[in-house]
Design goal:
single chain, about 230 residues, mainly alpha, two-stranded antiparallel ribbon, 11 helices, 2 strands, about 5% strand, flat
Length: about 230
């Protein structure tokens, strides 16, 4: 299966600003406020936050659905980070439109939650949930490909068995997962992931790989990481 290449522009390794720590601000210098993606991926939650923010940005650029902006705001806030600049830029623009004398009187109009057209349409929230599911599955495949050099078909099978069959989180077929990979493939995002995960140790990679069923892990990887 040949992946379709799409080009989005990422700012290489992104940086984020942390919330101010509580307590005595005289000790502020002991708590760096600027963090990079290398800092975020030191734990599982940070990996999820980093991927989540990236996915929201990519999805918003592709669909212009404002719910991705709101979701990115929540991900950052819950992670103790200030919202990315693209989120602030969008919200500032919309607030400016709202406060203008002749601006829209409805939030549905402001954020274009209602669409004109014939036939049944998928509500904005349902669209974002579907895209969120697809992005999360794609991230899993990207990690397998960039961390372990898995082929596309290997990554698809491993992710399908783990997250679509075994855990019953996403009841979709193997062919649907292949289409998700083809649709969301982004060569620049791959290169960014390779750089981000280049610092992972052998032990960390092995522990991540152990979450997958042995029967679906390629033999060369089972041998390389001493997995039975």
């Amino acid at each position: 299966m040949k992946a379709k290449k799409k080009n989005y522009t990422y700012n290489s390794i992104d940086t984020y600003v942390k919330h101010l720590p509580g307590g005595d601000l005289r000790h502020l210098l002991d708590h760096p406020l600027i963090v990079t993606e290398f800092d975020l991926i030191k734990n599982k939650k940070g990996i999820e936050d980093m991927f989540g923010l990236k996915c929201q940005w990519s999805a918003f650029k592709e669909t212009n659905n404002p719910l991705y902006v709101f979701h990115a705001f929540l991900i950052a806030h819950e992670a103790g980070l200030h919202p990315p600049q693209w989120v602030l830029n969008y919200m500032a623009k919309k607030f400016d439109e709202l406060l203008k004398k002749d601006g829209p009187k409805s939030l549905d109009v402001l954020f274009k939650f209602t669409k004109k057209g014939k036939g049944k349409q998928t509500p904005p929230l349902d669209r974002i949930l579907i895209r969120q599911r697809d992005s999360e599955l794609m991230d899993r495949m990207v990690m397998l490909e960039t961390l372990f050099g898995c082929k596309v078909y290997e990554a698809v099978k491993m992710v399908h068995e783990k997250f679509c069959v075994k855990d019953n989180q996403n009841m979709i077929g193997l062919s649907t997962l292949e289409r998700i990979h083809s649709r969301l493939y982004d060569v620049e995002w791959y290169e960014t992931c390779r750089e981000i995960f280049s610092k992972w140790t052998f032990r960390k990679k092995r522990n991540y790989l152990k979450a997958y069923s042995d029967s679906y892990i390629p033999k060369r990887l089972r041998n390389s990481y001493s997995l039975k």
